Request: fold
Amino acid sequence: MSPVAFQLPGDPNTTVAAALYAAEPDRSIDALLVFAHGAGAGHFHPFMTSYAEGLSRRGVTVVTFNFPYMEKRRKTPDRAPVLEDAFRRAVAGAVAHRHVRASHLFIGGKSMGGRIATHLAASLDKWPEAPLPSGVIALGYPLAPPRSKRTGDRVTHLRALTVPTLIVQGTRDPFGGPDEVQEAIAGATPPPPITVLPIEGGDHSFGVLKSSGRDQAQVHDDIQDAVVDWIKTRCKARAA
Reply:
């Protein structure tokens, strides 16, 4: 099923494009994922579309969108407050869409998009008029840019999360591997409800080396299966 394009609400300077990938009707698991792109590519990047399509085939309704800077074709991402506001408007617009009927809301994204989703989950006092998120999904959490001295704080809010969160992280990710994510949240009291799913041999986009002998398409299929299984578990937990 082809995605349905629509515009998210906002003023003329911040209105951005979005796309709805409806869940396969006979496989719907009554869940909506608002899925944000990474820093360097918009919501129609092949990674974004392949995951949105794959998850919708597995029963999850997915809405993708552009952040304002991407809509204006700028290379430099907006500051965090602008990204967060755009994401909240995306959530409100997705939930209000006439073709969305899901009872369970999830937020997430690729790299920067996943990080901003965790920002939203850590500041629920600013949540829009929408159901509270049942979970957060971060595909390749960017602990720090490659070769940086890891300046800036991308960890403290993770340690304070109360919303169940799934972080899918490649073991070759130059932004930080699964062990580094675990180390970053270790010792928090109470421990945040974060599950880290390691992707053996995967880079920041879960690409594996040809020398591994693994089929790349199968790697992505397995990740999408795992994400949907996690979403199903969270839906059951919220319904109980």
About this structure: Residues 216-239 form the longest helix (24 residues). DSSP finds seven helices and eight strands in the chain. The helical segments are 46-57, 68-71, 80-96, 112-121, 156-159, 178-185, 216-239. Residues 40 and 75 are 7 Å apart (CA to CA).
